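Table S2 (text version). Query chain:
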Amino acid sequence: MRSRRAVATLLALTASILALLLGAAACAPAEEDPDPSAEDTSSTEPSDDASEDAAVDDPAACAEGKTQMDGMLMIGTDSPAYEPWFVDNDPTNGEGYESAVAYAVAEQLGFTGDAVSWVKVPFNTSYKPGPKEFDFDINQISITAARAEAVDFSDGYYQAAQAVIALDDSPAAGATTVAELADLKLGAQTGTTSLTAIRDVIQPTEDPAVFEDTNIAKQQLMSGQVDAILADLPTAFYITAVEIPKASIVGQFQPETGEQEEFGMLFEKGNPLVECVNLALAALEADGTIDAIEQEWLSDTVGVPELQ
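Corresponding structure-token output:
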């Protein structure tokens, strides 16, 4: 057995070792709490997220790399391109409501006039599904749910009612209601909401005449083959004021639900440029550009009777 002295010595030695270990632990550096008054430099440099946010608000930054050809914006419309939407059948001159709007949007997207190229797109093929040879099409194309299944649309850039056009001596000239048109021979361009309005809203007793374009519709009206034709209201103003002075606008009405019909720029389904064009249109609405273009190129609708 160990003696009491040996045990005491062993205990004293153990106590000394523990004291040394505790002292070393106390001297070890500890993590310091962050100083709330210290300057935080982590947010002084712009982050990638901040750059992305800036791009979201800038139509030109948004459009970078999203057009079919680098450095070019390809815009589609029909030929002939009718007034008052285009002037002299020349979309490139910037004259007429849609030409002016197209170039204003192009500028917002960062494209100068010489970086805009126009592509011929027949109206009734523009909203068919599949690849497109343009970045967007502008051609009085009404935004409808059926069309939106095959293509994408921008926000509306113009609201228009349907108008009934008749020769002054036509039986349609005295109509005051939609119902009074039902027994007449009516016509409109194929694929248009005007033709849809005849079939769905007026519901005539005789099948409407369907024309390849507005020029043929006007010829049929002047020759008495139809009692009246339908077109959007600004086009009707131009037809009756310039092209067929013996014709008048019988009245106007809103198709389908009665909500205002809107024209939108048309895109291939899934085109990321849509959001950029919407940014551009919002900017042009906010600074009054759209209103100014409308005042310059489109007639006032005041005074045209509503067909109930």
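Notes on Table S2: The CA atoms of residues 187 and 209 lie 4 Å apart. Residues 1-44 have pLDDT under 50 and may be disordered.
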